[in-house]
Amino acid sequence: MKRIIISEIIAPEDCPQRLPDYQANPRISEIVDAIRRQGGGPIKVWTLLDQLALTRKPRNRSHWRFWRLMFASYLRDALRARIIFRWGKKMVGLNKPPARW
Fold first, then answer.
1. SS3 36
2. pLDDT at 34
3. Rounded to a whole number, what is the distance in angstroms from the first to the last CA of the chain?
4. pLDDT given for residue 16 in this prediction
5. Where are the domains of the chain?
6. CA distance 70 to 79
């Protein structure tokens, strides 16, 4: 019996490509809108998270931290879905950075 090794897997042409829709998640759309308000260019991650947490009007430090971490998890999801792109280690933006950033 011969063994067959598959080296490449190619999806059929009629297979639908599902791109993530950030409109389905209101938190991700808040992040995208906040970046757009800054001009769409790169913005520091913690500055962005602070601005987003401030919109929730935290009552104390623990609520402030909760909202920052909540938006950080949604930001991570948006980065994985390629809705938002990293600009170096500490910045994010809506468009891809140039090749030699």
1. helix
2. 93
3. 52
4. 72
5. 22-93
6. 14
> For residue 45, what are its two tokens?
């991650």
Q: Name the pTM for this structure.
A: 0.73
Helical H segments across 3-97, by residue range: 26-37, 45-55, 61-80
Other CB atoms within a 10 A radius of the CB of residue 25 amount to 16
Q: What does the angle CA 76 – CA 82 – CA 20 come to, to the nearest 5 degrees?
A: 95
CB 45 within 8 A of CB 92: yes
pLDDT of 75 = 94
* pLDDT, position 21: 63
The one-letter code for the residue type at 14 is: D
58, burial (CB in 10 Å: exposed 0-12, middle 13-18, buried 19+): middle
Dihedral-angle region of residue 40 (phi above 0 means left; psi in -120 to 50 means alpha; beta otherwise): left
Q: What are phi and psi of 87, to 5 degrees?
A: -120, 90
Q: pLDDT under 50 in the chain at which residues?
A: none
